Amino acid sequence: MFVQIENLVYQYKNASQPTIKNFSLQLDQGEIIAILGESGSGKSTVLRLIAGLEIPKSGMIVINGKRMVDDRTFLPPEKRGIGMVFQDYALFPHMTVEQNIKFGLRHMKVKQKQERLNEVLELVNLSDYKKRYPYELSGGQQQRVALARALAPAPSLLLFDEPFSNLDANLQMRIRDELKEILKQTNSTSIFVTHDQEDAAALADRTIFLEKGAVKNLKVKSLKAHSLI
């Protein structure tokens, strides 16, 4: 098993109940998993726990044979080898596309950085845009830059937090198809959270449903609404 998450429990400081309750998930290498749930169900908190941005009360995370967290271990985010694409893309506005992507490659030599930059720009079809700033790009192009930046260091796992929420419907459909093709081409193991069933069905190999911090054994097709708000 490439990713093994067992019995994660997390409770915010002033909360009366745990936000995440015994969350478990296993992924094979190259698999794309969607976590579907309503707002407040704990989807983004799960991603933050996996990324190391929050510390669980209990539980275990192992990625590619490397223990990230358990009762005696906690690796900080920068040592986990995880890439994350945020809902608002989190691009540096004062940096060009090239500079944004190279930001995560600080430990590479100059020649290696340039080679990797060229590889990921070609992968996301933005080779002609490397000197542009984020404000000069469309929403879809900004998302592809965010993806290229996350892919550049060759992470063991990619995390996506509501990756299509800032795109209009037509662009959303096209971008998610492009994203799936890129993830499969690079054999990237990925988890993304969404409240939209259509996104989950189009992009994920498998979907789980999260309700009040716990995994529910519900088939997505049995849910009536196309999206959860």
TrEMBL record:
GO molecular function terms attached to this record: ATP binding
Protein name per Swiss-Prot or TrEMBL: ABC transporter ATP-binding protein
Record keywords, A-Z: ATP-binding, Cell membrane, Ion transport, Iron, Iron transport, Membrane, Nucleotide-binding, Transport
Domain ABC transporter span(s) in chain numbering: 3-229
Alphabetical list of SUPFAM superfamilies matching this protein: P-loop containing nucleoside triphosphate hydrolases
Gene3D superfamilies in alphabetical order: P-loop containing nucleotide triphosphate hydrolases
PROSITE patterns named in the record: ABC_TRANSPORTER_1 (PS00211), ABC_TRANSPORTER_2 (PS50893)
Segments forming a coiled coil: none
